[in-house]
Design brief:
Blueprint lengths: L1 H23 L5 H15 L6 H22 L2 E2 L5 E2 L1 H20 L2
Antiparallel strand pairs: 1-2
């Protein structure tokens, strides 16, 4: 249980860093922020929430990020058309942490 709590805290910190990064760079993207908040809220209750809630939160998170990419593309015009590497890294880390939490709950 302690390991789940630690992973949950790390996941919340990743989501807060993602949101802070959006604000700090003047690239506030509401859809991505909502996705991060969904995952953070779930992570705060990961020890108590059932497995279905975790998979549901991850599906919403991934779905919103995929929708963002469909609407805005995989490159960022505000950064000279560079690939959205930070987005992909943060989504990968967040997904991995969520899966680790879910596996520990079995």
């Amino acid at each position: 249980m302690k390991q789940i709590r630690t992973l949950g805290i790390v996941l919340v910190l990743v989501q807060l860093a993602d949101i802070a990064l959006h604000v700090a760079t003047g690239q506030f993207e509401p859809m991505r922020v909502v996705a991060s908040l969904v995952l953070a809220v779930w992570a705060l209750s990961a020890g108590r929430a059932n497995l279905a809630a975790g998979w549901g939160a991850l599906a919403v998170y991934l779905g919103l990020n995929a929708l963002f990419l469909l609407q805005n593309g995989v490159t960022n015009p505000e950064q000279g058309g560079a690939l959205r590497v930070t987005l992909f890294v943060l989504v990968l880390i967040s997904t991995a942490l969520t899966i680790l939490i879910q596996r520990r709950k079995r």
